[in-house]
């Protein structure tokens, strides 16, 4: 995983777990799939997704996914 100094501005404010979760949203995984992959409860996944959306200014999950994909292309 890239260090924070080399991250695009849109992802810098995320915690490591929010960033992991957001990246998986960008890979089109469902909450249940993210839960299994990161070994956390679905409620925790929903909380992390909501937090990542708020911190990136995303109004919905699709916008979060687009933000992550664009940030990773830079």
Fraction of residues in helix: 55-70%
- How many alpha or pi helices? 5
Which ranges are low-confidence, i.e. pLDDT below 50, for 5 or more consecutive residues?
1-7
Alpha carbon gyration radius: 11 Å
Helix/strand order: HHHHH
Q: Round the mean pLDDT to the nearest integer and report it.
A: 89
Count all strands and give the number. Answer: 0
Note the gap between the termini.
15 Å
Biggest sheet features: none
Q: What is the oligomeric state here? A: single chain
Shape: globular
Strand content: under 5%
Helix and strand composition category:
mainly alpha
Description:
By secondary structure, the chain is mainly alpha-helical. The protein has helices at 9-12, 16-26, 31-38, 42-56, 61-73. Helix 3 (31-38) crosses helix 4 and helix 4 (42-56) crosses helix 5. The longest helix is centred in the middle third of the chain and has 15 residues, at 42-56. The radius of gyration is 11 Å and the shape is globular.
SSE blueprint and pairings:
Layout: H1 9-12, H2 16-26, H3 31-38, H4 42-56, H5 61-73
Helix pairs in contact: 2-4, 2-5, 3-4, 4-5
Provide a compact summary of the structure.
By secondary structure, this protein is mostly helical.
């Amino acid at each position: 995983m890239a260090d924070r100094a080399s991250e695009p501005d849109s992802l810098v404010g995320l915690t490591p777990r929010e960033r992991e979760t957001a990246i998986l949203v960008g890979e089109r995984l469902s909450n249940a799939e993210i839960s299994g992959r990161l070994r956390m409860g679905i409620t925790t996944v929903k909380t992390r997704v909501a937090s990542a959306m708020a911190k990136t200014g995303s109004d919905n999950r699709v916008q979060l996914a687009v933000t992550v994909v664009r940030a990773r292309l830079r």
